[in-house]
Amino acid sequence: MPLDEALAAKILKAVDDGFEAQIEYTKTLVRYPSRRGEEHAVQDFIFQEMRRRGLTMERFAMDEEAIKRHPGGSPFSDTHSKAPIVVGIHRPKAETGRSLIMQGHIDVVPEGPEAMWTSPPYEPRIDGDWFYGRGAGDMKAGHGSMLAVLDAFKAIGMQPASTIYVQSVVEEESTGNGALQCHLRGYKADAAIIPEPSGGKVTRANVGVVWFQIDVAGFPVHVREAGNGQNAIEAAFGVIRKLRELEAQWNEKAKDDAWFKDQAHPINLNVGKIKGGDWASSVPAWCTVDCRIAIYPGEKPETMMRAIEDAVARATREDRFLANNPPRVTWNGFTTEGYVLEPGSEAEAVLARAHERATGETLLPQLIPAYLDGRVYALFDKIPTLNYGPYCELSHGFDERFSIASLKKSTGAMALFVAEWCGLEAI
Amino acid sequence: MPLDEALAAKILKAVDDGFEAQIEYTKTLVRYPSRRGEEHAVQDFIFQEMRRRGLTMERFAMDEEAIKRHPGGSPFSDTHSKAPIVVGIHRPKAETGRSLIMQGHIDVVPEGPEAMWTSPPYEPRIDGDWFYGRGAGDMKAGHGSMLAVLDAFKAIGMQPASTIYVQSVVEEESTGNGALQCHLRGYKADAAIIPEPSGGKVTRANVGVVWFQIDVAGFPVHVREAGNGQNAIEAAFGVIRKLRELEAQWNEKAKDDAWFKDQAHPINLNVGKIKGGDWASSVPAWCTVDCRIAIYPGEKPETMMRAIEDAVARATREDRFLANNPPRVTWNGFTTEGYVLEPGSEAEAVLARAHERATGETLLPQLIPAYLDGRVYALFDKIPTLNYGPYCELSHGFDERFSIASLKKSTGAMALFVAEWCGLEAI
């Protein structure tokens, strides 16, 4: 039942009134350099903030064995985060509404060389409508909006009339195991909403992601003995060329995909990181390359993993160095499927009404050619999963930033969504 | 005047008798991990060892300004060694012979991943005739042989009858500035001998070397926004392809070189080290590549430096990423000329006799397509410079090793050379 007009207006005003505090809270989140494995301090801060708001708190580690057994689990590597997952549980006086999972990830990707930033990446900076900082858009703005929604209800003497799990996870940027651990913990709800920076659209579908590392290691010599093709770094380039061919083949298949058929290049291979050799005058005997590639929703990661192994094998046959020193492929992160928000769900209809009331605009769907934690709830809980949040630019880049106005709108829309989906009751 | 047969035999026997102690001394040298900048401890050890033998000791730093002004100076970078140069000076009772510079470098190149070694690189290991260890061949075996020669004379109650500078230098593997600093210090002699691992041959000519670093840095984004060609790592590959073309052109010119005309590939470009990007799912905005290339003796390094800049400029014109983000070339090591040991010198004739007597074989000349410190004495002191030492394999590689038998022979030959060149007097 659509929300009462007067109540909706009160809620939006409460979001407005609390917005300055919400921005301050977002600044605090950005000040924590919560790179992979370094999310401990910010998770403790969030624990305190949730507890202060009266949520029932849970804090737990990942169960590596259970994740390994689950089809949605990604491999653990040495760099896997050991930071806890923090969940605040809201229980109503009377469970009259529909339950909800709200989730945000607190991990951020590395900031890279600080000299390439206009201002220090973990010192939040506001310039007009832009809020700058590593992780500001992806996704501390959205993360902070979850508590801002609850604060807005409290400001008008209300609270949700159903169970809400507010989940602060890690490993969203590398494996998706944090979200999966919440699922394995047993939290269940009628819908999930994740305020990733979707630019005020709702995500209709996304891709699966596979991470892999290629190690080339072989026999090195003094440069004076070097012949061409005995160089591990340049041998690695040969592997990358084959992987670019693989990427092109997979983009050819876009036309057969129900969702990505109109996208020019939905499958992006990224050669993200490289390291090799020790000395300018020693022929490098080792080179390690970290890559990421995508798969269409509905495809299994194993299909791509076999295709990657085949591409590496082809490169190996064509290169003298590789033929003598076959490269090793390691799965050191994401091996995840994409998901689809099937059109027509009641949850999406509720969000569409909320969005229209908060912004005056029609809610549009969107395709995201990147990993999203929403896949856990869509694929394994089979519940409507709404990926919806503010507008962000240069996520993963230098001078990452989000639009402050867009955050106010998406927070308002999320508050109206929660009010209608869960119902409200007096405190 | 050729050495007296009986004296020569006594000297060779003394070298033999001292050889066990020489190997122990070499082991001690190898145990010091004297990578670039980390030569302080071993230089102090060598200082003590030379002083104990009664040499007059000098220990001094490099004069960066003087090196910069000298045409043979290489640029200083952040990683330039600050370890001292150690020189022991032998003065005879009566200066009746010809003076000599004996020089060895004590710096070693990085060992690389230790897992690729059969045994730990700084734990000397002997297996049959092979002595294993990082720097064992290049050139701690030869370095130790300098003092072994003086020890052999002492064992028979003799000492050289002319001034000898025994110079232990650093920066041989990266700039050649250590040797140049000895020249700037003002040491002068009638010849120089450097027991690099030449495999029992004398070096007729070597190449000059230029080190350079290429920095590609630009505008990064989330992988989902990535188009091809926006990747700093792959853009760097484009630069390397142009540098390989440059290398091919320079090898074409081999046929015009007086010394290297019969060599198939004297000019080796080495792509020695690469580092780029921060995260598998972030498009890399930076990549740094360390390279080394050679030039024919007689060519100025500046000629190659301009050619490198031109090759990088060509790559920049052909690549979208580079066109928007022109790479930076930094000269961060060697900018040195090659040298020639002109045939017919008396010093070489003395070495040939010494070699033949110690080994029973004719001394053969050899071309080395790598940097040698000898260039300082050949080019700037214009004295005969003999690069002559034991047989080594896999210098700069894993499981670097030298032949113990070859070291005994080259030490014997060097002792006979010194005895004839400098003359001997009773202690």
TrEMBL record, chains A, B:
State the species of origin: Phreatobacter aquaticus
Q: Record keywords: DNA-binding included?
A: no
Q: Which NCBIfam families match?
A: DapE-ArgE, PRK06837.1
Peptidase M20 dimerisation domain residues: 205-319
Which keywords are on file for this protein? Answer: Cobalt, Hydrolase, Metal-binding, Zinc
Listed name of the protein: ArgE/DapE family deacylase
Q: Which PANTHER family match?
A: ACETYLORNITHINE DEACETYLASE, PEPTIDASE M20 DIMERISATION DOMAIN-CONTAINING PROTEIN
Q: Which GO terms describe its molecular function?
A: hydrolase activity; metal ion binding
Q: Which cofactor does it need?
A: Co(2+); Zn(2+)
Q: Which family does the entry's similarity section mention?
A: Belongs to the peptidase M20A family.
Q: Which InterPro entries match?
A: ArgE/DapE, Bact_exopeptidase_dim_dom, Peptidase_M20, Peptidase_M20_dimer, Peptidase_M20A, YodQ-like
Query: Cross-referenced Pfam families, in alphabetical order?
Result: M20_dimer (PF07687), Peptidase_M20 (PF01546)
SUPFAM superfamilies under this entry?
A: Bacterial exopeptidase dimerisation domain, Zn-dependent exopeptidases
